[in-house]
Design brief:
- The complex is a heterotrimer.
- Chain A is mainly beta.
- Chain A contains one helix and six strands, in the order βββαβββ.
- In chain A, strands 3-4-5-6 form a four-stranded antiparallel sheet, with no helix packed on it. Chain A has a two-stranded antiparallel sheet with strand order 1-2.
- Chain A is globular, with a radius of gyration of 14 Å.
- The two termini of chain A are 23 Å apart.
- Chain B is an alpha/beta fold.
- Helix content of chain B is 27%, strand content 24%.
- Classes of the chains: A mainly beta, B alpha/beta, C alpha+beta.
- Chains in contact: A-B, A-C, B-C.
- Chains B and C meet through helix 3, strand 10, helix 7, strand 14 and helix 9 of B and strand 3, strand 6, helix 10, helix 11 and strand 29 of C.
Chain lengths: 93, 413, 895
């Protein structure tokens, strides 16, 4: 049971959250101009690193806010969490 | 002296005197390198040798042979998936299973005891019946069971109307069943090794040698190894490898947990899955209950998940199988599963010439072991995707031709 | 101490309440406890606690439990147990015990109430921290309890402090990320042999600790020599403790040891009146302090000390019990057989490293202590006591796992007692090429039984090291996994049983539905009435009646379960334009519009009617099952992609109740319910909303129709839901008002060709596939999903499209999900190429026959084509038609 550091509420149990995978994947404003391959990258490719990952979670059973956080996928250690559209803290790596 | 007759378990036969060379060192080059000595990788090496006469092969494993999904597994074997493409590859695999022990020459405890998938609501029944009819037109054996028929096959199922989500019916694949994972892996490994395949353990890939878009070999913790063709069959670590090779794959690695009980008296002689009530279970030859459920929700390479997933699974198990209330959970384990957006595998070519991929089997890889290996071997041997593998090309995500098996893939999704 | 009676294998014995079953049986002279799982070798108690490998029982009394070590059962009056031979019983009776769970946040969790754990608890408690101390035994003190020594008072007093919670009989089963641990507390088994329901039998604790101290101690391991498994061979600490507590089975003893623990136990045996014939120590030389503390003490008592020697074999009497042991010196030709009925084995302390390994802390091999220890101290976790390698002052040991064996001896030298796995099995594994402990484990089954290698694990690692010339550290510790000891399924299920296994969501009108006798359908977590049978009516008859009543008169349906999301903010219209495939920003205030939602992959995933309440206030409805998912979806886009849009979303599914009155007579009924409302078509048009008092309460009425009939959806605050329903029923009585359920709702909409997301769709259909091109705006630059429509496979010809199917035999209802083949393939046996499948299929009261909706490849161009549906027992023939069967001109909706 991960203890996830919601930047609004503080650390809470994993079951209060939904996972959102890789952070900072922006919706392409010009999708009509993208090739099928470029578009597929946005739709389907999300990073899957073995190590530190900047990912998204939403605190569904709490403040219902989305946020980003650094987490190490090797040992589940959490780094700093940060609100959307704020400066990304350096990777703890 | 005891006044009671004690229950006994069955004794399994011994493994053979010799399996493979311990601490095998790699040669400087091979015709084919397979990265990953899991079930699929070992099966690939076996079929390269057996079907195609290609024996100058090395299987490179970063840990100990078959230490991933083949090290512990809920071992459900079935082919009753929804889409034609899935029926193709999974049923080819099942047909191979049916003759595998004899062909490979290794006891695998393959037991075609049937696999039952329960339906718990009107919409659940509807979607499972669609699956049942899909199996029918694809000539994949499938039976629809009423609650009473379920009870007849598996008396321990609670078919009462009093539980939260009563059982309303089930699909049943009689040809489905189970096998012992490590025996399967070792059978393939030994047979491949006997045919000349080198199995190199404790050898981690650290990079690829790629020249002009064509793979020339791999770099490892035991030195550089050259190869004409390289196949990536590394399951949860596929993204790590593809990143080294310079291309993206739409995979996410998630924890998948399962658990086992102590040896108990035999009360269940078929395999039962339930999507709505989140649990699947079988009882192995010696008597241990083997159970699993869904993945944890986040990316992980830690080989462990959260305990709440286990608790939910056991609550579900007690509802469906009240006789399990007293059974002891003896051990839990967690592995890494690589999940593609459509819960279907990714097999075939990559942007790097002569570098082939076979991954994305997610939570359903064990049953596909023979079929996957067969198809991957054919693909590597010819350089072109085998007919059964074609639908699973990496570029299907560009065209949009996904093969969405989230429903039929069982509880895990 | 009171005497209790218990039954073992059908025979009655007496013991003391609270003493272990193992101890009681030994005191009653029962040494041959059971036989081994495969080889039927006689076995007896060998250990003190959970490390016990032989003496397992199935418990029949109380709640009943399979495979419990006799060493961990506290005697109670009426205990009934049977010896097990490796297999647990699963009786077919319910376990009516209560099981529950508790959650705690705490500053410090201390695992283990031995002296080290108590000292740690004291340290943190002194700092003012909140502390929980858990110990798996009934009393605190760790080894002191076995030694019969009192715990220092100032340590024991810590457990009574206000900021300290002490939980005995509580096993920490797993340690997880960020200080989370799971423990099981046994609360009633030691009280009596009853099934308890007034309190939980086992409580599962979930603890979130800022810091966890692991003070889990250690147990001994055995040595591998020929016939090392006989009844009468015990771990030395266990032997000394049993004998000190009144076990009089043994007149003489030999102690074999690799460390000074053997000496301490020899002295205890001697003091308890056992004749210790010899202490056999593999160590030729020991340190001065060891000599002082142990060897001198032995000499003083006149006990023979044989240095540099070990046990190689044992012999048994006619009953299979230990009768003598053979010792050898591997470096000389010493070989001697000594008569004895007890062999106390001190094979080395094995710290309980499990919890540390669960979170990835790797044990290291301590050469001095011949043990895997965990020395760890960071903000989250620390170790102390024997786990950290602190065994006490004279704690040296020799790394030794057993003597060299002949192949004959190897056949009966046991590595894992529970699996009957011998040194021969182990050696075969090495010769077969196994090097990793994980391979050896799987090859031999060592470590896979009930005890999960608690004693055999380290032994095996040592043997591998010896076999291939590597130090134990190079081999590495075994992978341990939770749980530490086995747990009954029901305990972990806790209270999540029966109706508590998942919440039941009901509408405010639910009680009325139930009282009417309507069977309920599970739609996700919701209970919805499926149909409303009159007395004796079958479902088939009820649904036909309900359908006819709606199309000819007026029906009423509880639509309260549909997801409802309140959307406000000046950019709501712009936002909805991005979310839906069609245009919403141009929707007039007071109007409703049906919308379709796609994912970024262009596939339909939800639909619903959204109403513009006022300029910047909207009410979105979703499918019943999709509500939470859609709200999450909306928030994801607003918060992570378009924060510049001022839009606020709130779930109001449960705040609003919706009662739909449907049918040509619904206008008359609406008039009666809302006398102030002008219900004429001109005043109240299709898809328009009006606010009015209905049955005396404020309501928003929408002219939305899912059946094609004239219909009014009456939306009220949820507390008025039942009142509206009852008003509808009483005001509509003379109009033959007919309540109808989900089945009829399904049929009516299908007759109109309206899709149900999740039935006509499975996540792989675009709006185009559903013949709903009309709902895809051509004016919008972009909306979610649009780009995906033009992908190669999404835009190609031949995709499955929504059509109707009429079976040639109108009395036959084609099963939903049935697959369709071309008419020319009617006789082709499977495998046969299919062209689609049936998504919805019903008998239609309006048509007087069956009909179906289906997804067929290129279906829209194939209307009129013959098809076949191969079933197991027949082939159904039919034709592809349009997907709208009733009221193709849409004239009925105005009444």
């Amino acid at each position: 049971m991960l203890h996830i550091p919601c930047p609004y509420c503080g650390p809470r149990d994993e079951t209060e959250f939904h996972y959102g995978s890789e952070a900072h994947v922006a919706y392409p404003e010009n999708s009509a101009n993208l090739t099928d391959e470029e578009w597929a990258k946005f739709v389907f490719i999300r990073s899957n690193p073995k190590g530190w990952m900047a990912e998204r979670w939403v605190h569904s059973a709490g403040c219902r806010r989305w946020f980003n956080v650094w987490r190490n996928t090797i040992n589940h250690e959490f780094g700093p969490s940060y609100k959307p559209f704020t400066q990304q803290p350096k990777s703890p790596a | 002296m005891a006044t009671t007759t004690r229950r006994r378990t069955v004794e399994l036969p011994d493994h053979p005197d010799f399996l493979w060379v311990a601490d095998q060192k790699p040669k400087k080059s091979y015709d084919v390198i397979i990265i990953g000595a899991g079930g699929h990788g070992l099966a690939t090496a076996y079929y390269l040798a057996k079907n195609h006469g290609i024996t100058n092969v090395a299987v490179i494993e970063k840990g100990w042979l078959a230490g991933g999904n083949m090290g512990r597994n809920t071992t459900i074997i079935r082919s009753n998936y929804l889409w034609d493409e899935s029926a193709g590859i999974y049923d080819h695999s099942l047909k191979l299973w049916e003759n595998l022990e004899e062909e490979v020459g290794y006891e695998m405890f393959f037991s075609q005891r049937g696999v039952m998938t329960l339906a718990h609501s009107v919409s659940d029944v509807r979607s499972k019946q669609r699956n049942f009819y899909a199996n029918h037109v694809n000539a994949v054996d499938s039976v629809w069971l009423t609650p009473n028929e379920i009870k007849e096959i598996a008396p321990i199922v609670n078919i009462s109307e009093d539980i939260r989500y009563p059982v309303m019916g089930a699909t049943f694949q009689p040809r489905g069943g189970i096998a012992k994972h490590d025996w399967v892996a070792w059978g393939y490994a030994k047979a491949a090794a006997d045919m000349g395949v080198d199995i190199i353990q404790n050898c981690e890939v650290t990079g690829f040698k790629i020249v002009d878009g064509k793979v020339q070999g791999i770099k490892t913790t035991q030195g550089d190894i050259a190869a004409n063709k390289v196949g990536m069959v590394a399951a949860g670590h596929t993204s790590v490898l593809s990143k080294m090779a310079g291309f993206d794959v739409p995979l996410q690695s998630r924890p998948l947990q399962a658990l086992v009980s102590e040896l108990n008296e035999q009360v269940l002689d078929t395999v039962i899955m339930s999507g709505a009530v989140h649990v699947y279970v079988s009882q192995a030859h010696k008597g241990e209950l083997v159970m699993g459920a869904g993945t944890d929700s986040y990316n992980s390479y830690a080989q462990r998940g959260g305990f709440h997933v286990i608790e939910h699974q056991l609550a579900a198990a007690c509802e469906l199988f009240p006789i399990f209330e007293r059974a002891h959970m003896l051990r839990t384990w967690g592995g890494i599963v690589d999940i593609a957006p459509d819960a279907s595998p990714i097999i075939g070519l990559t942007p790097v010439e002569n570098l082939f991929i076979n991954s994305g089997w997610g939570t359903g890889g064990f049953k596909a072991t023979p079929g996957s290996g067969w198809v991957m071997a054919a693909t590597i041997a010819s350089g072109e995707p085998d007919a059964l593998a074609k639908p699973y090309a990496l570029d299907r995500f560009i065209s949009g031709h996904l093969i969405d098996e989230h429903g039929a893939a069982g509880v895990a999704h | 101490m009171s005497t209790v009676n218990f039954t073992f294998d059908g025979k009655q014995y007496a013991g003391e309440k609270g003493e272990s079953l193992a101890s009681a049986l030994l005191r009653n002279g029962v040494l041959h406890f059971t036989d081994s799982s495969y080889k039927d070798r006689p076995r007896g108690v060998m250990g003190l606690w959970v490390e016990e490998t032989n003496a397992l029982v199935n418990v029949d009394s109380g709640a009943g439990e399979p495979l419990k070590p006799a060493t961990t059962i506290e005697l109670v009056e009426g205990l009934v147990v049977r010896s097990a031979q490796g297999v647990g019983d699963l009786p077919d009776t319910r376990d009516n015990s209560r099981y529950d769970k508790a959650n705690r946040h705490v500053d410090v969790l201390v695992v283990g109430a031995g002296t080290a754990g108590l000292a740690a608890a004291k340290k943190f408690s002194d700092q003012g921290k909140s502390v929980i101390v858990m110990d798996d035994k009934p009393t605190a003190g760790g080894h002191l309890v076995y030694l019969g020594q009192p715990v220092p008072a100032e340590l024991l007093a810590v457990l009574d402090r206000e900021n300290v919670t002490y939980l005995p009989r509580t096993t920490v089963q797993g340690l997880y990320d960020q200080g989370y641990s799971v423990a099981t507390e046994r609360r009633t088994d030691h009280l009596d042999a009853n099934v308890h329901t007034e309190m939980s039998r086992i409580r599962t604790w979930h603890i979130r600790a800022e810091h966890t101290v692991l003070a889990t101690g250690a147990f001994q391991r055995h040595l591998v020599f020929a016939n090392n498994d006989r009844p009468g061979i015990m771990l030395s600490h266990a032997a000394a403790t049993y004998v000190s507590n009144g076990v009089s089975l043994f007149k003489s003893a030999v102690v074999v040891t690799v460390d000074n623990q053997g000496y301490r136990d020899a002295i205890r045996l001697h003091n308890a009146g056992v004749q210790v014939s010899a202490v056999v120590d593999i160590r030729k030389k020991v340190s001065k302090s060891s000599k002082k503390s142990s060897r001198k003490a032995i000499e003083k008592l006149g006990i023979r000390l044989i240095k540099g020697a070990t046990v190689i074999d044992t012999q048994a009497n006619l009953d299979g019990l230990l009768s003598s042991v053979t010792i050898v010196d591997p470096k000389s030709d010493l070989r001697e057989t000594i008569k004895t009925d007890l062999l106390a084995v001190s094979g080395g302390w094995t710290p309980v490293v499990h919890l540390a390994t669960f979170i990835g802390i790797k044990p290291t091999w301590s050469e001095k202590r011949a043990a895997f220890i965990v020395k760890h101290n960071d903000s989250l976790t620390s170790t102390t006591g024997m786990l950290a390698g602190d065994f006490g002052e004279d704690d040296e040991a020799e790394t030794f796992f057993g003597p060299k064996l002949s192949s004959e001896q190897a056949l009966v030298a046991f590595v894992d007692f529970q699996r009957d796995a011998t040194y021969r099995d182990f050696k075969r594994a090495i010769d077969a090429g196994m090097r990793s402990i994980e391979h050896v484990k799987r090859y031999t089954a060592i470590g896979t039984a009930h005890d999960q290698g608690k004693t055999s694990g380290t032994v095996t690692m040592g043997l591998i090291g010896q076999a291939i010339g590597k130090a134990p550290d190079e081999i590495g510790s075994l992978t341990f996994r939770p749980p530490y000891i086995s747990i009954p399924f029901a305990a972990l299920a806790g209270r999540d049983r029966g109706l508590l296994s998942d919440p039941e969501r009901t509408t405010p009108i639910h009680a009325w539905h139930v009282a009417s006798g309507a069977p309920m359908e599970d739609v996700g977590q919701w209970k919805r009435p499926w149909y409303f049978p009159k007395a004796g009516e079958t479902m088939h008859a009820a649904v036909l009646r309900e359908c006819a009543a709606v199309r000819e008169g007026v029906g009423v349906m509880d639509a309260s379960t549909l997801g409802k999301i309140d959307i406000q903010g000046k950019d709501s219209g712009e936002f909805l334009d991005l979310i839906y495939t069609n245009m919403f920003s141009t929707l007039k205030v007071g109007m409703s519009r049906y919308g379709l939602m796609c994912g970024i992959d262009g596939m339909v995933f939800d639909d619903g009617v959204t109403t513009r309440i006022s300029e910047n206030h909207w009410l979105m409805t979703t499918t019943t099952g999709g509500a939470a998912k859609v709200l999450d979806w909306l928030e994801e886009w607003l918060q992570t992609e378009w924060p510049h849009l001022e839009v606020y979303c709130t779930s109001v599914t449960e705040q609003i109740s919706t009662v739909a009155i449907v049918g040509p007579k619904s206008r008359e009924l609406m008039k009666r319910l809302a006398p102030s409302l002008d219900v004429s078509n001109e005043s109240f048009a299709f898809m328009e909303n009006k606010h009015a008092e209905v049955a005396g309460v404020p309501a928003r009425i929408a002219r939305i129709s899912f059946s094609g009939e004239l219909a009014y959806e009456i939306n009220v605050p949820a507390i008025y839901g039942l009142h509206i329903w009852e008003s509808v029923m009483s005001q509509g009585a003379d109009l033959n008002i007919t309540p109808y359920g989900t089945e009829t709702m399904h049929v009516l909409r299908a007759e109109k060709g309206f899709v149900i997301v999740g039935q006509e769709t499975d996540g792989t259909q675009t709006p185009d596939d559903l013949d709903m091109n009309w709902i895809v705006s051509k004016k919008k630059d972009d909306f979610i999903g649009k780009r995906s429509f033009s992908r190669a496979d999404t835009a190609r010809d031949g995709r499955h499209q929504l059509v109707g199917i009429l079976a040639d035999d109108g009395s036959y209802v084609i099963p939903e999900g049935a697959y369709i083949v071309a008419g020319s393939d009617a006789a082709t046996p499977p495998p046969v190429k299919h062209i689609g499948y049936i998504t919805s299929s019903y008998e239609s009261a309006a048509l007087g026959r069956s009909f179906a909706l289906a997804l067929v490849a290129n279906g829209l161009a194939r209307k009129g084509e013959k098809i076949a549906i191969p079933m197991a027992d027949r082939v159904v023939t039919g034709v592809i038609t349009d997907s709208v069967f009733v009221d193709k001109e849409n004239t009925r909706r105005d009444g």
